[in-house]
Structures are given as C-alpha cells and as structure tokens.
Write a structure and sequence with these properties.
Order of helices and strands: HHEHHEHHHHHHHHHHEEHHHHHHHHH
Radius of gyration: 33 Å
Number of domains: 2
Structural class: mainly alpha
Oligomer: single chain
Largest sheet: 2 strands, antiparallel
Distance between the termini: 28 Å
Strand order of the largest sheet: 1-2
Number of helices: 23
Length: 438
C-alpha cells in the first residue's frame, strides 16, 4: 500500500488548494442561483412577453416537439411566459380528471349549494320585480286589454303571480337539480377559468407551498456544494480545461432534478438509507387541501359562475328551453280561475304567446340571484368543505399528479436552464482560477 500513500502524498502536495476548495463553493452558489431563478421561470411572467419573429410560426411546425412546447414558439414569437401560467389550462384539465371529478359530481356540487335556500333567495329577490315583468309582457302582447283592465284586477294578477312564485321557483331549482349533470360541466368551467386567470394556478402553489419552495432554493446550495466535492476531485486529477464546464452541466441538471424530486417525491413516506423521505408538498396535503378548496370554491366553482355557465355557457340554450318548459304550467296556475275566460277573451294563441313570453322572461330573472356576490360567497363555504374533505382523501399519487401536471412536461426546460448555468459557472471558475495542475 506504500504506492497508494506515496500517490496520495504527491496528490495533496500538488493540489492548488484555492482552486480546489472554491469549486464546491462555486457549485453551491450556482445551485442556489439555479433554483432561485428556476422559481422565477416557473411562475413569471403571468402572460407571454416577447417579440414576433417573421417566419418563426412556419418554422415552428418542423422543430422538435420539445422546442415547440416553449412558450410563444408555435405562435411565432420568442420570449417567455412562466411555465405554470402557460400550462394553466392543462393543469385545470388534469385537476378535473385526477381530482375534481373524484371530489364530486355536478349534482353533488349543486346539492352542497342548498337548492332550497337558493329558491328562497330567488323568491325574495324576484317578488318585487313581478309587477314590472307582468306589465311589460302584457303591454307588449295585448296592450288594449291590459290598458283597459281596472287597477284592482291588475293588482289581483300581480298578487296571484307573486303567490305562485315559491311553486314556480321550486320547479326551476328542482329541474336544474334533475338535469344538472347534462347542464353543468365543471371541467369546462375550471379549464376556461384557469386559462383566463393563470394567477389562480400560481396562487395554488404560492399560498400553501411557499415554505417548501423557499426550502428548495436553500437546498440548491446544499446539493450544489455536495456535488461540487467530487467535481473538485475529478478536476484536480484530470487537469483538463473542459472538465469543469462539462461537469457543471451535470451538476446544474442534477441540482434542478433533485429540487423537483424533493418537492414531489416520494408521494408516500419511504425509508432510504435509514432516513424517512417524503415529498415536501405531500407532507402537508391536508393543509394544501384547505388552500386548494378555498381557491376553487371562492374563484372557480361558485354559485355566481354556475349561474353564468347555465345561461351563457355552451349549454345555455338547453337550460333556457328546459326552464321555460318547466315554467309554463306554473304560469297557467297563476292565471287561476280566470284562465279559461282569458283564453276566450284574447284567443288561445295570444294567451299561449303571453304565457311563453312570461316563461322566457322569467328564466333569466329566476337565475339572476345566482349573480349575487354576497349570497354566492355565503354558499361557497359548503363547496369549500366538500372539496377540502375529498382532496384530503385523495391518494397521494393523484394529489402529486394534480399539483405537478402544470409543469411536468416542461421540467426539461428547468433542467436545461440548470445545465446552462452550471456550464457558465464552470467557465467562470476556469477563467478566474485556471486549470488545476497548470
């Protein structure tokens, strides 16, 4: 073993200790910078910032798929958008498939909103509007009859319609509940809202995960420093100028990969080398569920947005037709004993036209209270409770997929960014200290 001792002695005496010891410090600082700037790449900017390049849009179609995925390339631009905001719609889609579809059906969400209370609120808001609605419809459809009708009889019509309101509105909310699975599509609601409001997806990460994200940045220094020790040894033995930049690529790529692994893996506690490892986000799934539920209930699947989707969404025409059909018998009941006389006086066709017009007008009026922000906020608590409970019950792997979906396919950009910075760090150290042994 004398040869080994002699070799080690010669190796230690020949070391450029300043260059040797500064390599782990360089890689540690570079590791910290990689993860710090990587977080900026993840979340900022919210919208694409860049410039359009003539011919880029056409060229993009023949580029490798990975390059096509870079923000703006397929649109013919060069620039950047945060990875999470750029994939907000995709996260919404996967969130629905992995989680929200398991959290509850549209019918369950609707029942959490307490249809009976919705009906009471609609009656309260709609009752004062009945005279104006009746006046407008009857004046338009049968102006002479309505103008000549004595005021006491008009008042009787108003009161009759108002008395029928609870029954009419009950029919509306019941019909919505029966057909809600065909009328409401949470997936479209979530995807569209995330795409229009990418800041919400950023908030999901930031509001519960900022502590873990900051820890990832700090671990960047630790990982970089530890990886820099074998780099220093290899560089001191190899005496080649190209070693540091090449090994810097490895360190930069690995540092980012370890950072992502630290946050998301393993999904369940696992003992490795006597140490229990668990993804940092997964450790706080319960707390994350509360944050996630609050954002979804307060901003995405709200009573206000459900009402808008029912009337203005892709199935809005179907909603209006269904509710108008449900309202017609109730309006017939509101006419009471005078129904037969009215049909004779103004004609069956005219009477049916008036009934249909009232039903059509009433559809929009009955769902208007869905747009009441205060009432919507009060009902959001029940949606929040449902989503929080079900999210806590999600298998850890499904929870990881839901949270990681916005960035998984684009993680290579973070790793490439780390590799480039690692190479830059290697060139910088080479420029300052030169090659060891030379």
């Amino acid at each position: 073993m004398d040869w080994l001792s002699d070799w080690l002695g010669d190796y230690v005496r020949g070391l450029d200790w300043l260059a040797f010891l500064t390599i782990p410090l360089f890689t540690g600082v570079i590791g910290w910078l990689i993860n710090w700037s990587g977080l900026i790449m993840l979340f900022a900017p919210l919208r694409f910032h860049g410039v359009r390049v003539p011919g880029m849009k056409e060229l993009a179609t023949v580029l490798p798929r990975k390059l096509q995925e870079m923000p703006g390339v397929l649109q013919g631009g060069i620039g950047w958008q945060g990875i999470v905001p750029a994939r907000a719609a995709k996260m919404g889609s996967i969130a629905v498939d992995k989680a929200i579809a398991k959290l509850g059906t549209p019918a369950e969400f609707y029942q959490q909103l307490e249809p009976d209370r919705i009906a009471e609120h609609i009656v309260t808001v709609f009752r004062p509007e009945v005279p104006e609605l009746v006046d407008r419809v009857l004046t338009a459809e049968s102006p002479r009859l309505w103008r000549d009708l004595p005021q006491p009889l008009k008042e009787a019509v108003y009161h009759r319609v108002q008395a029928q309101l609870p029954s009419v509105v009950g029919t509306v909310t019941t019909e919505i509940g029966i057909h809600i699975d065909q009328l409401l599509d949470p997936k479209i609601m979530v995807i569209d809202h995330f795409q229009d409001n990418p800041d919400l997806v950023v908030r999901i990460f930031r509001d519960f995960g900022q502590k873990e994200l900051d820890m990832m940045v700090r671990f960047g220094f630790v990982f970089g420093f530890l990886l820099g020790i074998p780099v220093a040894v290899i560089d001191s033995v190899g005496h080649q100028g190209w070693l540091l930049p090449v090994l810097g690529v490895v360190v930069g790529w690995t540092t980012n990969a370890l950072g992502m692994w630290l946050i998301f893996e393993p999904p369940e506690p696992r003992r490795i080398l006597g140490i229990t490892w668990h993804g940092l986000f997964l450790k706080r799934q319960s707390e994350a569920a509360e944050v996630y539920a609050k954002i979804i209930a307060d901003d995405v699947i709200t009573l206000e947005r459900i009402g808008t989707f029912l009337l203005e969404g892709p199935r809005g025409d179907r909603t209006r037709q269904m509710l108008a059909t449900a309202l017609r018998p109730a309006i017939d009941q509101a006419a009471g004993p005078a129904r037969g006389a009215l049909r004779v006086a103004i004609g069956g066709a005219r009477f049916d036209a008036i009934r249909d017009q009232v039903a059509s007008e009433a559809v929009g009026r009955t769902l208007t209270p869905f747009q009441d922000p205060e009432f919507s906020a009060r009902q959001a608590g029940r949606i929040r409770g449902l989503i929080a409970t079900r999210t806590k019950e999600l298998p850890p792997r499904d929870f990881v997929d839901m949270m990681r979906s916005a960035i998984k396919e684009d993680e290579w950009m973070l790793y490439a960014h780390g590799a480039i910075m690692g190479a830059a760090g290697g060139f910088l150290h080479l420029a300052v200290f030169g090659t060891q042994g030379h």
